[in-house]
Amino acid sequence: MADTHELIRNDFPRGDFRAVLFDFDGTLSLFREGWPRLMTDMMVDFLREAGCVEPNDSLSLRVENFIMELNGRPAIFQMMRLAEEITALGKTPLPAESYLREYDRRLLAMTADRTAEVERQPEKAAVWAVPGTHDFLEELKRRGLKLYLASGTERHFMQPEADLLRVSGFFEEIHAPTAGDRSFSKRAVIDRILTTHSLQGHQLISFGDGVIETGETRKAGGVAVAVASDEGGNGTINQWKRIRLAEAGADWVIPDYTGQKTWLPELLGS
């Protein structure tokens, strides 16, 4: 039987949640499924060009680790880290923005067929959404919760994809960086939501697959639900993601939203 959820911490208060914050890629959208491997391969290519002789397996693992440590921040930060790695090799890196343009080029080549499929056949939106997404968002709205979206993906990429997946209309606010923005942070988004709407930290739940939103939600006093989906689509918890997100402070782990009838009442306390 597929995993439905895993409770990591059970001592958080329930029954007074008011706001729900979602990440986008990997949490709602699968358009960019496979991006960590694509970014890893690109960075390995640049490091090889800079003279890195580290064995392939260890280099790929090391690069993937620092990519995922920054998952949830704008991609420019991952490119800045690549520039630091090249500097450490004694070479002069390109500007981080140049690496970001190359990453975006490769990423758009990967996602073009997926987005085109939904443009041709809008009913395919469910195929490229994390399983159960639309029903789950509808249920949260039915319960009177206010939904917010915060993505580290640049707005000009993310917003059209959210529209294609037919999820934009569920959210009170959508937050994402502009091109090359280094000031965007999910902590700032969380603080803004809490302050603007006069909420306490314990009234916030977040759903995400990145360590950044997971950790920042916990620091703010909220409840962090890790969406540790298995890319094979079999509805089980990806243990590699689970370990990372649990270390970041996740309270609860789910593979996707299909089991919501089982775990949502327990999570919300109603």
Protein model, in words:
The chain is an alpha/beta fold and 270 residues long. It has two domains: 6-30 and 129-268, 3-Layer(aba) Sandwich (Rossmann fold); 35-120, no CATH class. It has ten helices and seven strands. It has helices at residues 35-49, 56-69, 75-88, 96-120, 133-142, 155-164, 186-196, 211-219, 239-248, 260-268, and strands spanning 6-7, 19-22, 146-150, 173-175, 204-208, 223-227, 252-254. A seven-stranded mixed beta sheet has the order 1-7-6-5-2-3-4, sandwiched between helices. α1 packs across α2 (56-69). The radius of gyration is 19 Å and the shape is globular. The chain starts with 5 loop residues before the first strand and ends with a helix. The mean pLDDT is 93.
Structure summarized in a few sentences:
The protein has 270 residues and is of the alpha/beta class. Helix content is 47%, strand content 10%.
Q: Could you name the ranges where pLDDT drops below 50 across 5 or more consecutive residues?
A: none
- Outline the biggest β-sheet: 7 strands, mixed
Summarize the amount of helix as a percent range: 40-55%
What CATH calls the topology of the largest domain is Rossmann fold
- Classify the secondary structure makeup into a structural class: alpha/beta
Amino-to-carboxy terminus distance: 25 Å
Rg from alpha-carbon coordinates = 19 Å
Element order: H for helix, E for strand: EEHHHHHEHEHEHEHEH
Strand content: 5-15%
Name its key features.
270 residues, alpha/beta, 47% helix, globular
